[in-house]
Structures are given as C-alpha cells and as structure tokens.
Specification:
mainly alpha; elongated; disordered C terminus
C-alpha cells in the first residue's frame, strides 16, 4: 500500500485533495472527446519521446510538454478512480451484508411482537410500540394481496377489508376486541 495520497486498488483511506478536479456539464458530456481503451500505447510513446525526436518531427516542444503534463494528471486521476471504485464496491457489499442482517432481525422482532401481543393482556401497548415495524414487514404481503385481488377480477380490495397479514395479527383476539383502539387501519386507498 502506497498511502492515501498515492492509493493502490483496494485501499480504504484515499486522500485526493491534491487532484485538480474538473467539472463537465451534463449537457456537454456527449460532445467531449473521449480516449479509446487502446490509447495506452500512444500515450506511452508520447511520454518516451526524446527532445531530438520532437525536433526531428517538427513538433512544438511546449505542446508536447503540455500533453505529457495532462497524461500524468489523468494517470493520477485514474489511480484514485480505480481505488475509489474498489472502495465503493466494498462499501456497497458491506451495506448489503448489514441490510441482510437487519432485514432478518426486523422480521424476527416483528414476529416475536405479534406472538407476544396475541397472548398478552397488554397487547395494545405492544402493538403501539411495534406498529411501524409491523407495517413495514407486512407491506409486501399487503401489496401482493391487493395485486392478487385485482388480478382475480375484483376492483381492488374493499376499503373496509384488511390485508391478510394484518388480519393474522388479530386472528386470535376475542370477537368483541378486534385490537387496540390505537391501531386504526387506514382505508385501503391510503395504504402504500
């Protein structure tokens, strides 16, 4: 590892403050000249030109020096770009791993809360505390239920009907007590 100001691919500490950043407007990006992938040999040849070869070819030495300077700057930018792409990929994979774990734990906690609410006399307190989590967990099932109902020829879920997942929340509650008063389900038209 060369260090944050001269990063290798895979480094997690990158310091690009020394790079002179340029901005290209979105509308101009299509018209900007682009180097092809096979430009490496041509660029390397320019870097290796001797002063005698520059003179013999009738090239302007200032133009050659400016071109060399631009090539070196681009190589430096590409070094940071490759390192940052790898770092971004690692960060994305890490985010996916955390998301996977979080999603599994959210599902487990929601299921535990629903089970506890079915058996507890404090069911309204439990459900009030976990309502956003339960709604989050049941959203795909509610959407699937609406889609299935619509595809079966219905005009959608009637506004008074609850989704299958939310019905299972209250399945074991006595008839006179259909859930805590604080758990008011929005009409189906207002559900996400």
């Amino acid at each position: 590892m060369a260090g944050p100001t001269d990063p290798d691919v895979g480094e997690m500490h990158i310091d690009a403050r020394g790079v002179n950043l340029k901005t290209v407007a979105v509308e101009d990006r299509r018209s900007v000249l682009k180097l092809r992938d096979d430009s490496d040999a041509a660029l390397e040849r320019v870097m290796l030109l001797t002063p005698e070869e520059v003179t013999r070819a009738g090239l302007n030495p200032d133009d050659v020096d400016r071109l060399r300077s631009q090539i070196l700057e681009r190589r430096r930018v590409m070094q940071f770009l490759k390192a940052s792409e790898r770092m971004t990929d690692k960060l994305w994979q890490t985010s996916l791993a955390y998301g996977h774990t979080i999603a599994g734990l959210l599902g487990e906690i929601a299921a535990q809360g629903r089970r506890r609410a079915r058996l507890s006399p404090d069911r309204s307190d439990i459900l009030d505390a976990l309502l956003p989590l339960i709604r989050y967990q049941s959203a795909p099932a509610r959407k699937a239920h609406r889609t299935r109902t619509r595809n079966e020829g219905g005009a959608g879920v009637p506004s008074g009907e609850r989704s299958a997942m939310l019905d299972s929340l209250f399945r074991e509650l006595p008839e006179e007590e259909q859930g805590p008063a604080s758990v008011e389900l929005a009409p189906e038209s207002q559900l996400p």
